[in-house]
Amino acid sequence: MALTETVPAAPAHEGILRRQSLRESAARTYARSLPIVPVRARGLTIEGADGRRYLDCLSGAGTLALGHNHPVVLEAIRTVLDSGAPLHVLDLATPVKDAFTTELFATLPGELAEKGRIQFCGPAGTDAVEAAFKLVRTATGRDGLMAFSGAYHGMTSEALAASGGAQHTSVARLPYPYDYRCPFGTGGDRGAELAARWTQNLLDDHKSGVPRPAGMILEPVQGEGGVIPAPDGWLRRMREITAARQIPLIVDEVQTGVGRTGAFWAVDHSGIVPDVIVLSKAIGGSLPLAVIVYRGELDAWQPGAHAGTFRGNQLAMAAGAATLAYVRANGLDRRAGELGARMLARLTALAAAHDCIGDVRGRGLMLGVELVDRDADADATGARPAAPELAAAVRDACLDRGLIVELGGRHSAVVRLLPPLTITDEQADAILDRLADAITAAVRTTPGPMGSSPTTLRGTTP
């Protein structure tokens, strides 16, 4: 009788990943670079089905201001579930909705809080962007829009048209200040001033081919564009330029809001008050919710001008109100600014030790590390070509070390850190220790372009 060899069954998580690959569309993104199956999570930590634990610096692309399953969020959700209140009510008024709106308005810049109006949109930020565009077009009677290079505002057609990857669009594209890769080759205050002057001249030149638009949309920190904070002075110039020409200014705070940058809203750093502010992600306390808040004088559209079946998500409103209140009561916005500054200082020291790090930047707990080809010649401003292969290797090395990060930037060469606002000093150190170790490992194993030697630490020899 022939002996047969028993083949051990594959772990359950491998079957789940295999079935996902077979069933889900080719458009899936995070699942390709993060082949894990989360089964439990708390705070900064995710546990996979394989038993491994990970520090989550993705935070649902910035959705989880308080981290996973924070007690105040869970309690808010349970309270609604146990109350017997309806969970789906379209745009009807409810006590839960009223409490959320009251808490949200308590955090807004004064002028918006006093005279603003709110529109509850479909559950994703991109729908709120669409609503903002409809609003300003209705209020002004104009059609065109102004947006910025490197922007990201969502995946619906109009939002994509205003984003950096647009291919066919009538949206006028403007230069965004970017010190490391300044479009004017200067960087600093001079680059920001030239960017502002370009915008002003485009609007005032009747032969520019850009008629006065219905609105301008910008991010105070470009997230997907590579974690690029706009200078406060430049933001004030954009507010002055648009106000003087009666162009509504739309600020996209989908990712920067709820304390992420070290202020409750990123516009608070510069002191500007936009005409429209687009909010999603963290305002739902981990659940889908999106709104726009805008100046009352823009409220010219008719009933049904923008609607959506799932704009009355009661659980998200309860979780969101609890999150907003917790961040405000515990000063987590200030905490994000202080801890983010310390983390940025450590990243700056890390950059000094690695030729492959071209730039580190960020604001609050929204941080980015731009990886470059150290063997290539720098341009006139000192910037080297992006190294997307190395960035992907760093991301993979981070995952091997139990750290979840994502990539962004013009060539997907920026490692982005978006930890929860609730992380401790010790957890911040652990994040940076794992990232530093991952970079060291990746530069030793990733060849440079066209077969050149791997990137190495400064002060070492290949």
From TrEMBL:
Keywords: Aminotransferase, Pyridoxal phosphate, Transferase. Pathway: Amine and polyamine biosynthesis; ectoine biosynthesis; L-ectoine from L-aspartate 4-semialdehyde: step 1/3. Its EC number is 2.6.1.76. Residues 443-462 are annotated as: Disordered. InterPro entries: Aminotrans_3, Aminotrans_3_PPA_site, Dat, PyrdxlP-dep_Trfase, PyrdxlP-dep_Trfase_major, PyrdxlP-dep_Trfase_small. One of its GO terms (molecular function) is diaminobutyrate-2-oxoglutarate transaminase activity. It is an enzyme of class 2 (transferase). PROSITE patterns: AA_TRANSFER_CLASS_3. The keyword Transferase applies. It holds the Pfam family Aminotran_3. Its cofactor is pyridoxal 5'-phosphate. It comes from the Bacteria. Residues 443-456 have a biased composition (Low complexity). Coiled coil: none annotated. Belongs to the class-III pyridoxal-phosphate-dependent aminotransferase family. This is Diaminobutyrate--2-oxoglutarate transaminase. The gene is pvdH.
